[in-house]
Amino acid sequence: MQSTLTLKMTLFYGALFVAVSMLSLYGTRKAIESYAESVIRREMAVGSALFDRIATLQFHQLGQASNVLAGDFGFREAVGTGDVPTIESALHSLQGRFQLDRAIFVSVDGTVAGDVAQISVLERTQLYEALDAGRQQGIVRWAGESHMVAAAPIRAPALMGWVVFARNMGPRDLQALAKLTSIDLAPQLVPLANISDKSGVGIKTREVEQDGKRMLIQSRAVPNLIKSDPEMLVLKYSLTDALSSYSPILWALFGFGGLGGIVAIFGAWAASRKLTQPIVALERAARKVSAGEHVEVQVETRDEIGRLARSFNRMVNAVEARERQIAHMAFHDSLTGLANRILLREQIALALQRPGGSGFALFCLDLDNFKGVNDTLGHPTGDALLCEVATRLAQTCPSGFIARLGGDEFAIIVQDGCATANQTGRSLVKALGRPFAVNGHRIVTGTSVGIALAPQDGQDATSLLKNADLALYRAKHDGKASHRFFESAMDAEAQARRAMEVDLHDALGKGELELYFQPLFGLSQNRVTAFEALLRWNHPLRGMVSPIDFIPLAEETGLIIPIGEWVLHEACRIAETWASDIRIAVNISPVQFRSSMLNSIVLQALARSGLEPQRLELEITESLFIDNVEATLASLHSLRALGVRVALDDFGTGYSSLSYLRSFPFDKLKIDRSFIVDLLAHDGATAIIRAITSLADALGMETTAEGVENSDQLDILRAEGCGQIQGYFFSRPIPASEVDALLCKLDEKRIAA
Ligand code: C2E
Ligand code: MG
Ligand code: MG
Asked: 204 and which of 9, 17, 200, 594 could share a cystine (Cβ 3.0–4.6 Å)?
């Protein structure tokens, strides 16, 4: 990361510097070029001015000389007489005197005399035409050489011809002109016909490429005598050569630029390294943080990077604090602050690993009737109660490791042997048995405790927890507010229970459930007035299973809901086939009773079977009144509103408050079998039966005595005013198919009686 960022910055600044120096080098070169060009142009202007001046001077001198001869009397006479030898000798002598290259006489008729040997006929004709047209000065090309020419007319007085003097304008003369300018402009006189690019003609300067060199060329017309083929003055100078004198400067600039570039690259590298180093440190720190290490980036600077580093440190601390919080949340219960199940399991595992440890005890406990507290006093009070429970547990087991497993379940690990564990279990039950004062409420709850001892009751957390739970289950079943140690038999029982649970789940679908019917004999009517439907389970391996064994399991697992629904439908369906004066009594479990579906299930059973509602009698037990009396009464009234009868089963065994008898008018009280058994053994039992029958009479309720097994019992019950009799004396519960036969048999018995 450092390398790339440093490299990038170095390259960027290096490139920037190189670009800037290239630009300035280019600019310098351009400036030099235009300066050189302007110098050359100026020199060219000077050159052509000089040429003009020299030409004017020459023309003047030549003109004066020719005038001298033209005005000479003897010469005019010789012209007039056509004396050619005299003319030529005069011309010759003046040519010598004035150092002329040519001295010529042209007559008005075009004949030429003098130094004309190298002048062609065409050139002679052209000369004559120019003179004839009145031109007297100018440059002329004769025999491939340029000449400055001036002519003077000869008049006597009429025009007879012209004296023409010429001076050669060869390269040497032009070279002498070049010497007068500060640079060698290589002046040349060139016929216009020889100039290929005529665009530069005038005083134009143009740039051309010649032999790989850049040249500045100026071609300009000179005063010509013969207009048809004019001469041009051409000046040229090599721009390349002019610039080459500046190239040391440019090279020096280039060298310094390169040196500067190297310095700039080093500078940029050093600066960017200094800049990126803290960033690299931050990046390294971030990588360590993500690997779970604690790091603090050292900062000295007060700039943006320093601020970034300080923010980074703050962020790391905040993240760590939050991590600690999350870890705490993952292992603790948010309500009580106690350890949760995960941490408890870890602690159990640790305790099991401790070498040479004396073992420990695991306590599992849950509160009695916590749901009732939540339902009646609200969840905030329930929560507050749990916190109080946590405090009390800590006071009771100060050295224990306490955890909340969820809901009202707690667990404690204590370094206890069996004897001390027994003592601890007892004190836990006692401590939680004391009333709590929570949110202005006095709450009495209690606890059951299951205890598993390590290592004998389990080698790992899972089995220890399971076994302590089994012991808790037993403690609750054996009557609440007690503690139990785990025994291996509990495990077997639990497994059997689980196997039965699985089987029971399938029993309905497999048609293993069946209803048996036991008659209720009406004493005043002297006949069977009803049957009670009693559930039987024909288990393929266990044989006939008693409802006493499987109904509690069905209630625990909730299977009682579908089973109870089936019972209602089946009982109504069968009863409908009987005589219309025989009722059917169906047992309703408290779990079923509390479910909101009961009313609609009863309605459906009646509707589907077509049974009259008053022929259906629902048997409920007193345990329904233990908690939530109001809700129970409301449900009873709504059931009654369907038109069915309601009987109170096992009367006298449960919650012995008679007040609810006044609140709800049951149709019938079923006196529990225990009172009937007692009838023959205890004297007081008769008094109880009497008390119940007269109470029922007073409240307008019928009575049925359960479990009547002999005629002595029957006699007493009849004497004490009991309305109906149910028991083995008349019949055991029988399958539906035997009902008709039983009715006939009982009829015979009655007739016989
Ligand atoms: P329960 O409603 O009190 O039923 C009376 C029980 O007493 C029946 O036991 C019956 O066979 C037994 N019994 C009747 N006469 C005599 C007698 O002379 N001597 C003796 N020793 N026992 C007698 P069962 O059929 O074993 O039922 C036991 C309990 O199971 C019932 O007590 C009832 O609470 C429950 N139960 C039975 N079927 C159902 C059902 O379909 N739904 C629900 N929720 N519970 C049912
Ligand atoms: Mg019953
Ligand atoms: Mg009963």
From this structure: 200
